[in-house]
Design brief:
CATH architecture: 3-Layer(aba) Sandwich
Radius of gyration: 18 Å
Shape: globular
Oligomer: single chain
Largest sheet: 7 strands, parallel
Number of helices: 10
Order of helices and strands: EHEHEHEHEHEEEHEHHHH
Amino acid sequence: MLKKPSLGGARVLITGGARGIGAATAALLASHGARVWIGDVDEDACLHTAAQLGVTGGRLDVTSAASWRDMLEHIESDAGGPLDVLVNNAGVMPLGAFEAETEPVRDLILDVNVRGVLNGMQAVLPGMAQRGRGHVVNVASMAGMIPVPGMVTYNASKFAALGASLSARREYAGTGVAVSAVLPSAVRTELTAGAPLGGGMPTVDPEDVAAAILAVLRTRAARRSVPRWVAPAWSTTAFVPERLQSLARRLLDDRRALTSIDTAARKTYLDRVDRQARAHRGEAPS
């Protein structure tokens, strides 16, 4: 039987904690008595958020195994014990035509959204299994189930994150450790700035996703979408003929990530992604 440790005093690390879902989750779990660390590749923003929330923050590049080791060693030294809960939340979401996607941006999406999740799980799961307790929650996306034009590589990364979560859950079954996936629909954060929300996909706030993460930590569920009904509803489309699905998608205008991006509203986020992508490849900023 999976052990369900209380969040009171639990040592929790949240990646991508400087903003959005990560920051909202840090605030919520800290309010329930957890000892929270947030990590983010943007160290200045991370430290600022940590100071505001009364938690601990530091630089974490989820694409680097060495960065993971440094962060976990720091937490264990600071907290007097190993990590109890990891929330793998860091992610990037460029949108647009697949043919226009640059190699640096593609590498960044896959390295952050997939390699980052795998690095985190590999860094903590063996120790958790040895101790017979622990929980990893991977923040995937409903884009890990629903293919959307304009999101080819992002879709690929989130399908991978969901698959990795479910596979690791089975591999560590019986050890006292749980691996779960949380799949938000469209979230009103900087990642979706200038993107056309809605179109049949419900929109939620970061606090809604944080509440789902807290619920999963309590129930140890394998998967939970936000809102909760979305994943079960989408699963029924397996029984719907493709021509009817295509008609419904046309009515909902599911190509809006290709045709209706507000580039001005999205510029700040995309500029940051571009800087991160170039830094990731060791290139000088343009």
